[in-house]
Structure to design on (395 residues):
């Protein structure tokens, strides 16, 4: 069966690349993927694959039925949206939508899932069960398309027993894939803080309430939330990347604005940390004569790969790729809205190598020069089709 899947993945590669290049040239932002959605639907129609569109407006769910379709259902997920980045790649399929770019590889995810759909549909008499294809919008923007797809019943009727997804990984050479059972990616919360004092002439600080000084004390104290309040062994990150204190050399401003992120892999600690951060900031501001407005915008939960599912999927990948091409991944403090699925059912989120340093394909995700070695499309389409079939067989 592996040989047959690889043969089809190679046979369809030219079409899969064409799909990827079309998507790359016509990126759309989160929850605005109208043309992308219509394009995906057109491909499913052309191949005779039944689908339902309109989930969260642009989301799509398709079903491919093998023999005995009610025996087990496994879901495969791809995301549709792009990022607000101006592309700087000099390629024929460069983005034609200025200021928008597929800089996170969602064009690869979608084209690989479409390629896998063709393979699974072609071989539907060779496996049992049902494969649910989930094309979701809005992975890059809160509240996350995954959470909304779940609310609208995308994984119901029939209910999926597990879900898989692959994500491009420019740290990994093309031809390799990576897995990590258990905790893999962090929850992602956004922090918006305004420190309010009383501004005025910098030469007269005794008549003022200096929000810059308050902020300096606050930033130091908030780091203690991670270093002294989190349980050892619970990954946590607190970072502030934006601070606006719109004064001058001789002017102390009335307020300072901060923006940052808090990330962890424990939901109980996450809630506790939110409370401690707000209390700490408010107390410091009040103790120094000012006040503080602290807003936590709760983002995605942490992503956990179900251990039995991931271990069996990793073993299936070794069969398809060769053991030397399947690597173990480190934990990451980046986030992904696939985490909503992983909190709901057994899930496996793995990485697809796309790097080719010799050809200059080495830029990181979310950069204006991100690109992939398109040989990864043949691997990605064939591998996820094989993984789905193996999970259905193991039932």
């Amino acid at each position: 069966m592996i040989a047959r899947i690889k043969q089809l993945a190679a046979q369809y590669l030219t079409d899969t690349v064409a799909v990827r290049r079309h998507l790359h040239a016509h990126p759309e932002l989160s929850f605005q993927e109208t043309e992308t959605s219509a394009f995906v639907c057109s491909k499913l129609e052309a191949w005779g694959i039944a689908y339902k569109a309109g989930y969260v407006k642009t989301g799509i769910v398709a079903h491919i039925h093998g023999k005995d379709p009610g025996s087990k259902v496994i879901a495969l997920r791809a995301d549709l949206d792009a990022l607000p980045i101006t592309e700087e790649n000099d390629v024929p399929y460069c983005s034609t939508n200025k200021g928008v770019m597929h800089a996170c590889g969602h064009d690869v995810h979608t084209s690989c899932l479409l390629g896998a759909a063709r393979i699974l549909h072609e071989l539907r008499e060779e496996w049992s069960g049902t494969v649910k294809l989930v094309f979701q919008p809005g992975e890059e923007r809160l509240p996350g398309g995954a959470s909304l797809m779940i609310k609208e019943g995308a994984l119901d009727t029939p209910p999926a027993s597990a879900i898989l997804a692959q994500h491009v990984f420019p740290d990994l050479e093309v031809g390799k894939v990576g897995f990590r059972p258990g905790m893999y990616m962090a929850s992602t919360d956004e922090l918006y803080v305004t420190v309010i004092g009383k501004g005025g002439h910098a030469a007269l600080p005794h008549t003022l309430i200096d929000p810059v000084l308050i902020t300096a004390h606050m930033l130091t104290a908030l780091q203690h939330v991670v270093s002294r309040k989190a349980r050892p062994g619970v990954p946590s990150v607190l970072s502030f990347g934006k601070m606006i204190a719109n004064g001058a050399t001789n002017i102390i401003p009335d307020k300072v604005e901060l923006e940052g992120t808090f990330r962890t892999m424990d939901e109980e600690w996450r809630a506790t940390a939110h409370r401690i951060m707000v209390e700490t900031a408010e107390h410091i501001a009040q103790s120094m004569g000012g006040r503080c407005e602290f807003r936590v915008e709760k983002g995605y939960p942490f992503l956990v790969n179900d251990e039995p599912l991931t271990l069996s999927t990793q073993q299936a990948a070794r069969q398809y790729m060769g053991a030397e091409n399947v690597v173990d991944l480190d934990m990451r403090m980046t986030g992904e809205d696939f985490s909503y699925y992983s909190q709901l059912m057994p899930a496996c989120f793995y990485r697809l190598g796309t790097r080719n340093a010799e050809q200059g394909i080495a830029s990181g995700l979310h950069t204006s020069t991100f690109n992939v070695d398109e040989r990864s499309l043949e691997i990605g389409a064939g591998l996820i089709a094989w993984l789905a079939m193996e999970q259905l067989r193991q039932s």
Residues 173 and 355 are 4 Å apart (CA to CA).
